[in-house]
Amino acid sequence: MNALAITDAAAWRELHDQASAPYRQGGPFAWHFARGKLGYDPAFRGIVSRGLIGPGRPRMLDIGSGQSLFANLLHSMAGMQRAGRWPAAWAGTPPAPVYTGIELMPRDVARAQSSVGHIRPAPTIVCGNMCTAEFPACDVVVILDVLHYVDLPAQEGVLLRVRDALRRGAADRQGQVPGRLLLRVGDAASRRGYAISQWVDHTVTRIRGHKVSPTWGRTLAEWIALLQRLGFTVQPLPMSEGTPFANVLLVADIDTATSTPSP
Ligand SMILES: C[S@@+](CC[C@H](N)C(=O)[O-])C[C@H]1O[C@@H](n2cnc3c(N)ncnc32)[C@H](O)[C@@H]1O
Predict the structure, then answer these.
(1) Which of 99, 146, 185 to mutate to test the pocket of ligand 1 (most atoms within 8 A of CB)?
(2) Is the pLDDT of residue 175 over 80?
């Protein structure tokens, strides 16, 4: 990589423009949503600038993927890195990312599919329920603001299958870096922020045509305990900067050296 001096702010502006541009093909809603979400949701910039994916995790599984913003983000990240337009302070990024998204709502899937046709290898976007869909072997799983749509036993079922998909991924690449789950959740112990995000979620999900409201929360301590019980090592990072929500990004790594997938 021929590293040119580029500041974090300039790189993020460029990435934001590049990653949102393809959503023009999905229509005005898809375009404005992509611009707004990538611009104002601190998770995307936070994950990129902290290097939480890293060059050693090329296969991403995005669960509850909405418009599959990560498909375009990863593609643009790889292109910027190839062009040497990548800040020295940011960790490297996978040069040829392989993206799979799983999303329940057909309209979101359609918007995603109309905006990823230029990407190679072609992303796989499945219209399906995360509680039953097959998870491919992968290196990093992203679940942003999704698990509270299903009840507590179903959440645990999804996380168990995530763990197994990460273990299968690590077995493929001989586990050089741990498989990683990036899970953003609301902290139900933080009453005000959690109540605000519940209200926003209820409103948005009704508008988007969901029949079920996202209501199944846990406190941050309960989320961490659950992940630890499943074998993850967890680091919580506040991830609601600039918003009124009580969101936390859990960076959960699975120790792959000693474990085998459960049947
Ligand atoms: C708040 S949105 C977040 C979208 C995306 N993760 C992002 O950050 O842009 C939650 C998404 O999860 C999806 N979802 C909810 N329940 C699901 C399920 N059982 N299986 C798959 N996707 C689901 C919703 O349709 C919605 O697109």
Answers:
(1) 146
(2) no
Tokens for 143, please give them.
């679940």
- Cβ 64 under 6 angstroms from ligand 1: yes
State the closest ligand 1 atom to the C-alpha of 102, by its place in the atom list counted from 1.
21
Report the alpha-carbon distance of residue 32 to residue 93 in Å, rounded: 26
- Tokens 């230029």 -> residue: 118
Q: Whose CA is nearest to atom 16 of ligand 1?
A: 149
What's the 3-state SS for 193-237?
A: HHHHHHHHHHHHHHHCCCCCCCCCCCCHHHHHHHHHHCCEEEEEE
| 152-172 and 220-229 helices, crossing angle to 10° | 50
The finding on whether 144 has its CB within 6 A of some atom of ligand 1 is yes
What value does the mean pLDDT take over residues 158-178?
A: 91
Q: What would the mean pLDDT of 236-250 be, rounded to a whole number?
A: 80
The whole model's pTM is what?
A: 0.91
pLDDT at residue 190 in the model: 79
Distance from Cα 138 to the centre of ligand 1, integer Å: 19
In 3D space, the residue among 113, 141, 84 whose CA is nearest the CA of residue 23 turns out to be 113
Ligand 1 site, residue 183, Cβ cutoff 6 A? no
